[in-house]
Design goal:
Elements: H1 11-28, E1 37-43, H2 49-61, E2 69-73, H3 81-90, H4 108-119, E3 124-126, E4 129-130, E5 139-140, E6 147-149, E7 155-160, H5 170-183, H6 193-203, H7 207-212, E8 215-221, H8 226-242, H9 248-256, H10 259-271, E9 280-285, E10 291-296
Parallel strand pairs: 1-7, 1-8, 2-7, 8-9
Antiparallel strand pairs: 3-6, 4-5, 9-10
């Protein structure tokens, strides 16, 4: 599908892509002890990713599919507040790790443990993160509050803004940084090269998780700058419901912290995170979040 289309409900497109893969996986892994299918869903802040994941999971849990679906987010794998503070103090000049968000601010060892437990069809506690703790700096929720799930699992959906990002050669990062500094475009040139390379090195640790995925769905903004407006819309909604929130200026500064990773890694993700064709679906959306194009990579 390459022409512009207006589709508000993306779920049928996702299930059309996913169900054949699930069937093949189930046929190849018939035992209850066999690993579940791991699906990554990647998408920028404000793209509607979380709502889409909730709808997709609900659809697959009900008849005629009736699958045991586990959903969790990369957001729930951020470092504890204490560890985030320690990281910030260790690299006080690196604005990219001053707050949670960029690669390097997730607990990858915890992610590996959760993935392995689900893979082995074990009873698993799904981590949870409280973004409101410490006046919005956030902290991992008490383990007693984590959801406990039981297998046998059919499908694990792992969603997040940087799912599927792959590290780049250092010279590529340097080239992109030089272009940004020379042109004045983008955010890369506003950071030190060594800080960008730090994040790029940290992203290498995420490879084990990406390689564990059987397939990936990428909800891709036609123009990544839409993230600013989408995030502002989200915050205005939160302010209406709870009476407080960030100012528009604070939101822009917040999104600026994520933008270097988008600028570095989004093009590579658009070309595909996997070598095998048919494992990734790219769903391009316009500013109104309606589908513009769907590409099976």
């Amino acid at each position: 599908m390459s022409s512009t289309v207006v589709i508000k409900d993306k779920t049928p497109i996702l299930t059309t892509f996913l169900l054949p893969l699930l069937n093949v996986h189930a046929s190849a892994n018939p035992a209850a002890s066999s690993p579940p299918f791991f699906l990554g869903i990647s998408g920028s802040q404000g793209s509607g990713k979380s709502t889409l994941v909730t709808t997709l999971a609900a659809t697959l849990r009900t008849y005629p599919h009736s699958l045991n679906v586990v959903v969790f987010s990369a957001d729930d794998l951020y470092l504890t507040h204490a560890d985030q503070v320690a990281l910030r103090e260790l690299y006080p000049d690196n604005k990219l790790v001053r707050h949670r968000g960029e690669p390097g601010t997730h607990d990858i060892e915890l992610a590996k443990k959760v993935f392995q437990s689900l893979h082995d069809q074990q009873e698993t506690k799904i981590p949870s993160y409280d973004k409101s703790a410490f006046e919005g700096q956030g902290d991992r929720a008490d383990e007693l509050s984590w959801e406990k799930v039981n297998g046998p699992y059919d499908l694990v959906i792992f969603e997040g803004w940087c799912i599927g990002f792959r590290p780049l050669p250092d010279d590529f990062v340097e080239e992109a940084w030089n272009k940004s500094k020379t042109s004045g475009k983008g955010t890369l040139g506003k950071h030190l090269l060594e800080h960008l390379l730090f994040v790029n090195t940290k992203l290498k640790d995420y490879g084990t998780i990406t390689d564990s995925l059987n397939a990936l769905i990428h909800i891709d903004a036609e123009d990544i700058s839409y993230v600013y407006d989408w995030r502002i819309q989200q915050e205005h909604g939160l302010i209406s419901s709870r009476g407080s929130g960030m100012t528009d200026g604070q939101i822009i500064e917040f999104v600026n912290g994520y933008m270097p990773a988008y600028e570095l890694y989004i093009d590579d993700l658009r070309r595909g995170s996997f070598k095998a064709k048919g494992k990734q679906l790219r769903v391009v959306i316009g500013k109104d979040r309606n589908i513009v194009k769907v590409v099976n990579l």
